[in-house]
Design brief:
Layout lengths: L1 E12 L2 E13 L4 E6 L5 H8 L7 E6 L2 E2 L5 H11 E5 L10 H11 L4 H14 L15 H13 L5 E5 L7 H16 L3 E5 L3 H4 L4 E6 L2 E7 L8
Parallel strand pairs: 3-8, 3-9, 6-7, 7-8
Antiparallel strand pairs: 1-2, 1-4, 4-5, 9-10
Helix pairs in contact: 3-4, 3-5, 4-5, 5-6
């Protein structure tokens, strides 16, 4: 699904050039469940942003489903994000005046889906994450874990093949973290490729493969479970 070769990303800070990514190469096959770890500034979030088409590399190759993402223009990148990916963040980014079902339906509006179908698909996504009885609740009426479930429902409402998560449990307590990780495991078991950034070893241990970054490079790449077989 994901092929990265010799990826470079640099930032200029005054007179210093920071190599956020320094000749990074990796492959993630469809159906994998991967954690990316590393200290602050190691390059993990930069890589996730590039994989999610939220940033572009200075050089190198990025292919998604065999297509050369690294050469796309902004309009095409936007379409790829909307059709192929879902995003989950540490902060839930829910619109406070909208209900759960309205928040989840938002990506479908940008995809041009008609209102009746938008709401039906949003309800289905919320039921998938265990919030079928919270459709009309606004964010301030939900716990932190429930808000994160809403954001996950919003991420999967377009039925993407790839789910990208940046510190998705960073604002949650340990019990709620376990619940959210159970949900990610269930989505992965249903065939969704999941890539998440985390600083928590117990969260990374729940995935099938851990990439550790240091100074913009992959320091280690260790499987914690067998890779899925690509059909």
């Amino acid at each position: 699904m994901i092929l990265v070769r010799n990826l470079e990303k640099r930032y200029v800070m005054g007179e210093e050039t920071i190599h956020a990514l320094d000749d990074v190469s990796l492959e993630i096959v469809a159906g994998e469940y991967v954690a990316i770890m590393g200290a602050s500034g190691s390059g993990k979030s930069t890589l996730l942003n590039i994989l999610g088409c939220l940033d572009t590399p200075d050089s190198g190759l990025y292919e998604l489903d065999g297509l050369p993402v690294s050469s796309y223009d902004d309009r095409t990148l936007s379409r790829v994000r909307n059709e192929k990916m879902g995003f989950v963040f540490q902060q839930f980014h829910l619109l406070p005046r909208m209900t759960a079902v309205e928040n989840v339906a938002m990506p479908l509006m940008y995809a041009g889906i008609k209102p009746k179908e938008r709401l039906a698909r949003a309800r289905t996504a919320l039921e998938r994450v265990g919030l079928g009885k919270r459709l009309d609740h606004r964010p301030n009426q939900l716990s932190g874990g429930q808000q994160q479930r809403v954001s996950i429902a919003r991420a999967i409402v377009n039925q993407p093949g790839l789910l990208l998560a940046d510190e998705p449990t960073g604002a949650l307590d340990s019990r709620t973290t376990d619940e959210i990780m159970d949900l990610f495991a269930s989505l992965n078991a249903d065939g969704m490729t999941v890539v998440l950034v985390t600083h928590e070893p117990d969260v990374a241990a729940r995935t099938h493969r851990v990439l550790r970054f240091r100074d913009g490079r992959i320091h280690s790449d260790q499987p914690t479970a067998p890779r899925p077989v690509t059909p």
